[in-house]
Amino acid sequence: MPRFFVSILLLLVAPGAAAGAILRGTVADAATGQPQDYALVQLFPAGSSSPRGAITDAQGAFVFSGLQPGDYRVKVAFVGFRDWERTVRIAGDTTLRIGLVAKPLTAQEVVVTAKESKGATSASRIDRQAMEHIQPSSFSDLLSLLPGGMAQTPRLGAPNLIKLREAGNSSDDYDISSLGTAFTVDGVPISTDANLQAVPGSSIDNSLVSRGLDMRAIPTDNIESVEIVRGIPSVEYGNLTSGLVNIRRRATATPFEARFKADEYGKLVSAGKGIALKGDDKVLNIDGDYLTARSDPRNTLANYRRITGSLRYNSRSVTDRASLRWRLSLDYTGSLDKEKTDADASMAGDRFKASYNRFAFASAFHWVFFDAGAVKSLDITASLAQEVSRMEQTKQVYLNRPVPLPVGMTNGQEHDAELLPYKYTADVAVDGKPMNAFVKAVLGLGGRTGGVRHDGKAGLDWKYDKNWGKGQVYDITRPLNPSNTNRPRAFSDIPAGTELSLFAEDALRFEAGRHRFVVTAGVRAMMPLNIRKAYAMHGKVYVDPRVNVQWKLPAAGEGAGRWNFEVAGGIGRHTKTPTLDQLYPDPIYNDLVQLNYYPTDPDLRRINMLTYVWDNINFDLRPARNLKWEVRFSTQHRGMDFSVTYFQERMRDGFRTMSYYKALPYKKYDANAIDPGTLTGPPDLADVPYTTDTLLDTYGRWANGSRIDKRGIEFQFSSPRIESIRTRITVNGAWFRTTYSNSAPIYRSATVNLGGDPLKYVGLYDWEDGSVRQQFNTNVTFDTHLEKLGLTFSTTFQCLWFTSSQPLWNDGVPVAWVDASGTEHPFTEADKHDTQLQWLVQTYSASYFDRSTVPFAMDVNLKATKHFGRWARLAMYVNRLLSAYPDYYRNGVLTRRSASPYFGMELNLTF
What we know:
- By secondary structure, this protein is an all-beta fold.
- The chain starts with a helix and ends with a strand.
């Protein structure tokens, strides 16, 4: 390690060897500071029309050496930006920092849809124009712009989870799809691994534990651009399986902007301004928003509120040897999810409230070095986020029978229990304080090997997740659920989760004749830290190799009629580690009634219980891993772009709750043997006969038991804007086929009662208990920009051609059965006819495994934006302005469908 750092130091300070002066510099987007690679830099000596040329590298840097003193004309050209030109006097080594300004919007250049990436992997880029046009309330609205995406009515009353490249809606057993999608904001990941906010025994499903990020909490008004990587991302990004959402916020001077939005489900107000403190070198961005929404506009008792605020400082400085960009940010996000009971409809007085407050601090340094060494840049990013969250629920509990109070705390404890009141109020609070820390350092590397150009990176990152909250706080004598299997536990007692990752990647650019290639190959190695030796993950290193190849074929034709062709593909492995909840679940408490003697005289009553407690940790739990591959073809001709991608994904060890069993022996006292005439108090257990019985208890435990197989085709076509009608046509869509199933055997108990007692056997089923789901949809968008009128409007024909679901076949027969002692036995042919074991065979109706298909449906959506000079913009939208939902027959029954419009409008002011 010392030799490594000495080598790096020498590379940074080694002087140039070329004779004469050196002109070096960087080229970046003046608005965002994003380096621009492949920009053409030309250097014209005074009085000469023959320039020297250079192409900027991945860090936007260029260098000219061996220059004689004098005046030189520098010209920079890059697609989509104005040409930059300036005369520079060279008297010695000189450094330039060049900021390119985007060309002014014209009718040809306004884009209100997502643009497919021109890189080697499948990704969609959503710019500011597209976001303004769709008028989002939260980040989830942006997903409608992806191939396969569809505009939906906002569901702000429940968590919004992301699903990429999936057909249909799956159950909670497949939440790895959203948990495995990484979100980064300005290079800083948003971690949810320490989230433990769940109310035990609650029927309100607002928990996000081990489910991923709630997109309702992400505002869109301060976002400059979003890149959603559906394919194989760089190895720089880890702890993901499904995809990457890379958010870049505004970091330039802007006028004061205010936005007011209203629709039938909510209201939103936002404001922001970018202040130039010293030219373009130092900028302070301040913004915030407030959102209030209801799941049902008719229901005033359930609402969701969000408030955000952000303070971001960006500075840039240049020396003769390097340029430095420094970013500092302080962010706040708060939300309140609240429900209460209508007093006129019920006297119960039930309440639920969930509050979320997140404070995040981040700092990042980006150096670009001008010396022509192997080290081109250095990035260091550090962040710290602290959440303060609380859930509170009040519930009136009514019982219709005597229920013993479950208060046992130790394993094997026999104790007498009191009875719960027939009516009581349960109050539960969950106090969570998740903290996330993140540090990353990346070296940008470059050079040449013969005709091959290298643009590489190497680095490491470290993440830390800890919850300092008090956890579940409630009176165990007044549980929310009478059959409570939990006890209060402080979240701060749970160990922290820590991970260290190393990564290295090289992008090789070379030409073979008229063919151009970019081969990006890298590897990421991740090691979980701070984990006990008992875990299978202890000491393990998980390696993710990833490769993307981009092949630009020779163009066909010349000039404006030229056809450009490109083939790209990639393959890679992606790994997501378990969350704290999955690694350290709550212990399970099971309270068994041994004697329930309940005469009319309360002084003679006695209820005796036996408490079992066991740790529910699965030490064999390992990270979920997904293998992806894809291939893409694209072409461009006369302003037309077309791309089509075929992909496959294969996961066999996603996280889910699997059923396990435990044999619990207990005493079964004979209450009929007690003579109440001889009692002067509760009966003495020594005088009561009993038999020993065993309860075969099934319970849930986290395991690697989910299988998700994806395959599909994504496509997108965009035309040039047709000048006669100022309209561009964009067509995108996707066919998805997703197989959801278990990848491990399942234990199940039968629900039948024999002789008044439940069946005391458990079956083991080695089958695929899931379904195959498919869907095919297209979106055809006509967007028109009338520049002279300041009017932009789009009409989208959103067609869902079909959706289908088909259960995976199984014969319903278990491979083994478990008796009351916990012993497993093979399930034989004779067992199918056994009086009790036959009930373990699952039976299905004749049509159960048939494929169910929902046919064609179409919505017509309209969006329009009107600019009033430079100061105001008025926009409106109507989803499902027109709809076509034909009737269809399902299992011989006529099904009728209908849809209601969803509309809203907003006003934007600029000062």
